[in-house]
């Protein structure tokens, strides 16, 4: 029995060692950790580039040549530092060229000002009023002539009637004496007709001269109106036609008086003149005299109608002249406004030439040195020493603070906000720079967002790339676990807790499922709620796959 008991114990020891050796191969070894009260930590990393917060552009005079370049892209320059120098000879030639162009612009502006001045002129309305006054006076004279003609008509017709009545019962001697008297009267009428013709022709010629003088005054103006000249020419032509008409009418009257004189002479010379014939001649003379008086009266009436029509036409011409003058004034105002705008443009061009000349003279006074006006970083300078400066060439300067721009995922960008701190580090350097998030552009459609952060004055390296890190903390939660302890399946989030269980072989550890609700999580931790305490050991990792109910070993905290 003793030997049996000893042998049994030895066998049990051997099997125990074998069981332990088998467990070390088949049972998963896990590493555990514990949750605690705290915050969820976020760590966002990536790379970005330094850019200028504000770029300024220093223009350079076109056509000049670079002499020496003292600052290259990336160099920091202070206020007053020389960036480059220009060759002096082209600068001096440019100064002379700009001086000539400036003087030409000044002369052109002065010429434009002179041409834009308003010059007094005779308007169409003034000319039409003058013509209307002339026609009004002519109408008044014509009406007076008509009244005189009517009075003469009445008197002459009455005289003819009396003369006819007197002559109707004359004797041969009386007829002879009357013929002698008629001859004298006809001679006086003929002389008066010639005098009337000369007077009427002189009046018409005087009217022609007035129209000609008016036309000459218009032509003597610096810039006469074509319409006014045409109206004056038309008035002159009408006056010349009236002159010809007066000559024709007066010639007819003179010829009639001359014919009457010849008739009287024949009557006086006719010795066989009898009483019956004298009576017939007397009647005929009476009828002819009345007819002549009728024609003279009708002529005066037609003259008044013509003068009334001329006055009416003058009134119409006055209205047309007012409309024309209004259009002319509008055109002149438009031209003056155009001249004013042209002068403003020329003044701006003149000021630009003055500034260009002042800049060239300033460069000459500094011996061609182009300097910085404030602290900045040379961002761009696409020039070579001895090279010619083109129209688009300029110096780009990064002024103010540097900006750091980086692309981050939209999920991480959602955690960033203005004012958060960002750590920047260049590759191979231990020194870190602090930046402050200025803005987050979340409108990108490629899954990335642009984050902009500003640095302190003088920090950063324009155009270079460096890494960044942003560490964020959430609010305090009652239970925060390592992110390695959080698992997920089709049911939801859970953790594997390690619990001891008593078996026939003693106390063993088993993985138990603990369902949790995730409140917030990051790449390193998660805030959860559920049956998890600060003393609950949670499986963080294992050397084999572990499922709920599996035995585990080698627990390490």
UniProtKB/TrEMBL annotation:
Would the keyword Mitochondrion turn up in this protein's UniProt record? no
User: Primary place of residence?
Assistant: other
Q: Which InterPro entries match?
A: UPF0194_transport
Q: Which GO terms describe its cellular component?
A: cell envelope
The Basic and acidic residues compositionally biased stretches are 206-220
Where is it located? Cell envelope
The record's keywords, sorted A to Z, are:
Coiled coil
Give the region (Disordered) as residue ranges.
Answer: 206-227
What domain of life does the native source organism fall in? Bacteria
Q: Tell me the protein's name.
A: HlyD family secretion protein
Please tell me the species this chain comes from: Enterocloster lavalensis
